[in-house]
Amino acid sequence: MDKLKALEYFIRSVEAGSFSRAAQRLEISVPAVQKLVGALEHQLGVILLERDTHGVRPTPAGAEYLDRCRALQLEHDELRQVERRLKGSSERASGLLAVAAHPQLAHHVLLPVLPRFHALHPEIEIDLRTVHRISDTDAVTADVLLLHGWPDAPPDYVHHRLGGARSLIAAAPEHWAAHGVPQHPSDLTRYTCLPMRNPSGTLVDLWEFRRQDQAVQVPVRGWLSSNAREVVLAMVLGGHGVGRFTEMTTRNAVQSGRLVPVLLDWEVQNGPPVNLLFKGTARRTPRVRAFVDFVLQCVRSMQTLRDAPAAQAPTQRPAWHLRGYSRASATVRRSD
C-alpha cells in the first residue's frame, strides 16, 4: 500500500464529503479511492470514515487521525510541487493522441479550435475519430472522449460533466413566414416537426419545456425523422419543418440568419450534457493532460460567452431514455 497516497485519498474524501467527489477532484476512479482508504483502515485496525447514502464523514478516531495527517500532507504537497517542476523541464507533450467524439461535437466544438491546440503543442499528432457510443470500437481504444448524453463509463474512467447543452427550437425564416411563429410550446403540435432518433434508437418526439414553475410536454409529429443530425438540419434549413438542435452546434446558422430560434423565453429540457472522459491510468500522460486541460477551457469559454445560461442537464437519463421506448412520447400516453 502507498501510505502517502492513502493519506491523500483519506483527506480528500473527508474534504469532499464523498468518495465520488474526491475521485473526481483527484481524477481517478471511485473504486481506487475506496480501495486505498479501506486498506488504510485495515492497516490501522480502526474505522476512519462512516459511510452512508449521503456520503462519508470522519469517525471520532478518523477526526483525530485527520488532524495529524494534515501536517504530513502539507510537507508531501510541497515535495510533489518540487518534483513537478523538475519533471516539467524534461517532459514534453508529444506523440499520438486518439480522440473520439460525437460527430456534432467533433465538427462544431473540436475542429474550430484544433489548429490552436496544434500551435501550442506541435509535437502531438491527433487521430480524431467520430463515434456514437462509448462502446464503439474507436471509442474503446481512444485516449480521450467528448460525448453527448449519459454514457455508461467504466469505473476506471475519469468523467467530467461539462454542463447541459442548451437546446433551441428553430426553423428557416421562410418556414416561419409561411406558417407563423409559435407563441407557446403547445402550438408546436400544429407544426411539421422533424425529430431525431438518438443512438439508443429512441425517437425524441417529446419536446419538454420549462419557464419558472410552468412545465410543458409536447408530443411532436412530422413526415421525416432521422438518426443523422445533419439530415434533419439540412431539411430544416431548406424550409421543410421545425427542428430541435443544441445551440453549441448551430451557432453559425443562427448568426447568419439561416436558422431562426423561437420560444426563447422557455428552457428546452433534457438537453444532453457534454462529457469529457479519459482513462484514469492516462491522467499523467503529458499529451492527454494537455489536451484535457485545453478542451475543458474551450468548452467552458463557449458556455460563458452564451447570451443565455446553459440548461441544467439531468445527471440521470430522462425516463423515456432509461426505459427504452421506441418513441419518447410513449411516456405521455402511458401516464395518461
Care to describe what's here?
The protein has helices spanning 3-16, 19-26, 30-44, 60-88, 103-110, 114-120, 137-140, 173-179, 229-237, 251-255, 286-304, 319-322, 330-335; strands at 49-52, 55-58, 95-101, 124-130, 144-148, 157-164, 167-171, 206-211, 214-219, 243-246, 260-262, 267-268, 273-279. The chain is an alpha+beta fold. The protein has 3 domains: 3-88, Arc Repressor Mutant, subunit A; 95-164 and 272-304, D-Maltodextrin-Binding Protein, domain 2; 167-270 and 314-335, 3-Layer(aba) Sandwich (D-Maltodextrin-Binding Protein, domain 2). The protein has a 5-stranded mixed beta sheet. α1 (3-16) packs across α2, α1 (3-16) crosses α4 (60-88) and α2 packs across α3. It is elongated, with a radius of gyration of 24 Å. The chain starts with a helix and ends with a helix. Mean pLDDT is 84; it is low at 305-311.
